[in-house]
């Protein structure tokens, strides 16, 4: 009898971990989409994206802490991140597009360090906690507990990525982005206004990254200036596992990485999280270098 109860409890715990993994994976997917846009369209790994993720989380916490309602705090955080992303575009892409390829990459890394240290100066380096904004709205399905931020994060990530896929596939902006992804100089000759389209790439990727930071803050209720670094690495892993340049691959990779992380914690312990995640990344690179939904040739795909 005791063994039967133990087995039931074990299955319940494992099922809850699967739910948690999907929710965590949706956050990784947001970061992966931001990176996918940057690499798929511009052939440029934007290292400032973890900093924009941090801005989303830290600004949300700061404004909620000051008494602002959470919807207004989230909106303000996304606006701040969008402005920061446009500044990154100005100084890493627009002014440096004709220089050596590594220069914009290093410049974006400098922005990551700048954002983190500005946050340290303004808010301090300590771990900060958000109040439990949705404590009374958790959903219970049998033994499973699903919080509103978790459910919202999963639904929002899928809905936003679906909307982005439609934009890329069926609009003039999408055609322009695909043309730039093939060759920026050819896009100029074809009449694509790069100086208008490329800032939109940075803007959209910045908002996706910041929304990931907001969802992380609302779900895990903890933020700090360096929160984006580990999430950025997991986002890169999700992008590669799913397939570089593929927006649906980004969400698939994010969910897979999230599940791998929580299952490894449940089965092996927290010390094996990075071994499991990056071991999976290495395995995918060996077996299918283009990723699960990737294809040879690069470029942004829906």
Distance between the termini: 51 Å
Shape summary: globular
Q: How large, in whole angstroms, is the Cα Rg?
A: 20 Å
Please state roughly what percent of the residues sit in beta strands, choosing from under 5%, 5-15%, 15-25%, 25-35%, 35-45% or over 45%: under 5%
Helix percentage range:
over 70%
If strands are numbered along the chain, what order do they take across the biggest sheet? 1-4
The overall pLDDT, averaged over residues, is: 83
The ordered string of helix (H) and strand (E) elements is HHHHEEEHHHHEHHH
Count the E strands.
4
Tally of distinct domains: 1
Largest sheet properties: 2 strands, antiparallel
Structural class: mainly alpha
- Given as residue ranges, the uncertain stretches (5+ residues, pLDDT < 50) are none
The number of helical elements comes to 11
Features:
single chain, mainly alpha, 11 helices, 4 strands, 75% helix, globular
What does this 3D model show about the protein?
The chain has helices at residues 2-42, 49-65, 70-94, 102-123, 148-170, 172-182, 184-189, 194-220, 227-242, 247-268, 273-287; strands spanning 128-129, 139-141, 144-146, 222-223. By secondary structure, it is mainly α. It has one domain. The chain has a two-stranded antiparallel ribbon with strand order 1-4. The mean pLDDT is 83.
């Amino acid at each position: 009898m005791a063994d039967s109860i133990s087995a039931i409890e074990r299955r319940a715990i494992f099922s809850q971990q699967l739910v948690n993994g999907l929710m965590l994976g949706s956050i990784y997917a947001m970061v992966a989409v931001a990176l996918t846009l940057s690499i798929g369209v511009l052939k440029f790994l934007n290292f400032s994206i973890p900093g924009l993720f941090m801005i989303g989380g830290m600004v949300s916490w700061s404004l909620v802490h000051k008494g602002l309602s959470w919807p207004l705090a989230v909106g303000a955080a996304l606006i701040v991140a969008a402005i920061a992303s446009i500044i990154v575009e100005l100084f890493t892409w627009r002014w440096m597009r004709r220089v050596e390829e590594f220069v914009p990459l290093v410049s974006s890394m400098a922005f990551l360090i700048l954002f983190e240290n500005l946050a340290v100066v303004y808010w301090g380096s300590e771990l900060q906690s958000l109040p439990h904004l949705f404590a009374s709205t958790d959903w219970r399905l049998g033994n499973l507990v699903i919080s509103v931020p978790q459910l919202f994060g999963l639904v929002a990530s899928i809905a936003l990525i679906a909307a982005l896929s439609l934009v890329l596939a069926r609009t003039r902006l999408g055609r322009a982005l695909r043309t730039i992804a093939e060759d920026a100089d050819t896009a100029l000759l074809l009449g694509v206004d790069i100086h208008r389209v490329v800032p939109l790439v940075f803007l959209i990727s910045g908002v996706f990254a910041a929304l990931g930071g907001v969802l992380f803050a609302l779900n895990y209720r903890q933020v700090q200036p360096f929160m984006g670094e580990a999430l950025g690495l997991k986002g890169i892993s999700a992008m590669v596992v799913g397939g570089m340049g593929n927006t649906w691959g980004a969400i698939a990779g994010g969910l897979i990485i999230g599940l791998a992380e929580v299952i490894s914690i449940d089965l092996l312990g927290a010390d094996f999280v990075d071994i499991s995640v990056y071991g999976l990344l290495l395995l995918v690179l060996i077996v299918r270098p283009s990723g699960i939904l990737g294809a040879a040739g690069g470029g942004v795909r829906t």
